[in-house]
Design brief:
- This protein has a single domain (2-18, 39-319), classed as Zn peptidases (Aminopeptidase), CATH 3.40.630.
- The chain contains nine helices and eleven strands.
- The chain has helices spanning 5-11, 45-55, 68-83, 147-167, 187-198, 233-241, 250-254, 264-270, 300-319; strands spanning 87-88, 94-96, 105-111, 122-128, 134-138, 141-143, 173-179, 203-209, 223-225, 246-247, 274-278.
- The longest helix is centred in the middle third of the chain and has 21 residues, at 147-167.
């Protein structure tokens, strides 16, 4: 969420190629269950923690776009997709950015819909997996690990991909995209949105996940979406969740967060409902773009709950007979 930098500075003055999967980053695939698993217990904090501790480890040196560190993350994501039946959307998982000088890649997988009449409609579920790399040292630490920003969103999307990859319950087709170079100005999502538009993809909606590692405090909802008033996504989500899952954060509107994450290029290119799910509210996390954005500060139980609550919402949206999410 690099575009938040200047906003936060004011407030707190108060990604086609191929690669080999690295030998030391294997993913242990679970056996798919016979039939549908319980969405409410699909993942847990221990599993989330293992993924977060890898993606935001010091070994990745902050996952800056085009760096050796982010290459490790890219290979991890590719291996993850392969393990859980998520096939490459393009010839390989890698979507080479055309708008960034260094080699950088979005990692893009898909799961075909199982309904002959709905599978040509696509839902794109995304998050950026890059961060800002190394920065000015603080107490000898110079690695901006990017746990909340955005290993958290990346982990959430990977677990959703694992669910649909193993269960194959979706009638509409799902694209899972992990974006690079978000911190350089939404470059990965801009590149992919333009590319998919040129392919005339029939995109229904784009659901993005950003900074979901710590819970909201003092709210009567679990997660907010940016651009809340621009569509009925919150209403649809809450109906399927059977609770007040998605709410409105006034600060998100005040600082126009709708245009500051990877949902926005898809809104621009396709003109479809495109929103970011987030639990960072400017008061519950003090280490944005700092070396202190470490996995140890993340609430893995909260993260697993977010995934478990969101899966049935996405599943219901993917399987509804009509496109229920509408722009206002």
């Amino acid at each position: 969420m690099r575009a938040l930098f200047y906003t936060l500075a004011a407030i707190f003055v108060v990604g086609c190629g191929s690669s080999q999967v690295p030998q030391n980053t294997t993913v242990d695939p679970d056996e798919p269950s016979n039939g549908k698993v319980s969405n409410n217990t699909f993942t847990d904090g221990e599993r989330i923690g293992e993924m977060m501790n890898y993606l935001a480890s010091n070994d990745m040196k902050g996952r800056e776009a085009g760096s050796e560190g982010i290459e490790m993350a890219a290979m991890y994501i590719e291996n993850y997709f392969k393990s859980y039946g998520v096939k490459p959307y393009f010839e390989t998982y890698r979507d080479t950015l055309s708008n960034f000088k260094k080699p950088a890649y979005n990692i893009v997988g898909m799961i075909d819909g199982n309904d002959p009449n709905l599978k040509d409609e696509y839902i794109l579920i995304g998050a950026h997996y890059d961060h800002i790399g190394t920065i000015k040292p603080e107490n000898g630490d110079y690695i901006a690990n990017g746990a909340n920003d955005n290993a958290s969103g990346t982990t959430s999307v990977l677990e959703m991909a694992r669910y649909f990859g193993t269960q194959k319950t979706n009638k509409r087709s799902l694209i899972f995209a992990l974006f690079s170079a978000e911190e350089k100005g939404l470059l990965g999502s801009k590149h992919l949105a333009k590319k998919l538009k040129e392919e005339d993809l029939n995109l229904y909606t784009m659901l993005n996940f950003e900074m979901t590692g710590v819970p909201l405090k003092g709210k009567d909802y679990f997660v907010y979406i940016t651009g809340y008033e621009m569509s009925n996504l919150a209403e649809v989500s809450n109906t399927y969740a059977g609770e007040n899952l998605v709410g409105f954060l006034p600060t998100a509107k005040e600082f126009n967060l709708y245009q500051r994450s990877d949902n926005y290029p898809f809104h621009e290119e396709f003109g479809v409902p495109s929103h970011t799910f987030c639990t960072f509210d400017f008061t519950n996390f003090n280490y944005y773009h700092k070396v202190g954005d470490e996995p140890a500060l993340m609430d893995f139980g909260h993260m697993s709950t977010l995934v478990n609550k969101t899966i049935p919402v996405i599943e219901s949206i993917a399987n509804a007979p009509n496109q229920e999410i509408k722009l206002n």
